[in-house]
Design a protein that fits this description.
Length: about 190
């Protein structure tokens, strides 16, 4: 019997990725406090946040596998979350200009029936081209950066800034599908 899947995220990008690989799921976003302690262990930080999200939602269900995820962008040991406003987005994009940075996504699965859980993370590197002030301004005016870690979306117009990547593209979008697939297999869910 296939267990129901619950995505503990409101992210349209994560929903699109799960749809892309043919998963049937419901969405039930968690509302946990996402304040993060100061740490340089970014991978374990996002893995823990993903687990907290999945656990918060799992309490609402008797059965099903809850998928939690959290993504951050890191440059020079500084976390770039979602920009609070246009000024913050401008600062982030200016700092990312011409630089390599890391994108970390934590993924967690929780079985609501048994409370069995696993959480892992993926890291990818992204190199931005040198951005002009007008490119930054026009991108901010598009509205795209405002709900994305690091103030850009590689799956949208932000792709125009990306010179190179190293690692899992889908991790940069917000859900590393290869890792997720392996994690689902460990729960007895085979997608192919």
């Amino acid at each position: 019997m296939l267990k129901s899947l619950i995505l503990a995220s409101a992210s349209p990008r994560r929903q699109e990725l799960l749809n892309q690989i043919g998963l049937k799921f419901i969405t039930d976003p968690s509302d946990i406090d996402e304040d993060m302690p100061a740490t340089a262990d970014f991978g374990n930080l996002v893995a823990e946040l993903a687990l907290r999200k999945a656990l918060a939602v799992s309490g609402k269900y008797e059965n099903g596998i809850i998928i939690g995820a959290d993504t951050i962008v890191v440059l020079d040991n500084e976390i770039f979350g979602k920009p609070a406003d246009r000024s913050c987005a401008r600062k982030m994009l200016s700092r990312l200009s011409g630089c390599w940075h890391s994108v970390f996504t934590g993924v967690a699965l929780v079985d609501a029936a048994t409370s069995h859980s696993i959480n892992q993370f993926e890291e990818s590197q992204v190199k931005f081209k040198n951005l002009t002030e007008s490119e930054i301004q026009n991108y901010i005016d598009s509205g795209e950066p405002m709900d994305k870690a690091g103030a850009y979306g590689i799956q949208g117009k932000g792709a125009l800034f990306v010179e190179k990547i190293c690692g899992d593209y889908y991790n940069i979008v917000g859900l590393p599908l290869f890792r997720l697939n392996n994690m689902l297999k460990s729960f007895g869910i085979n997608l192919l």
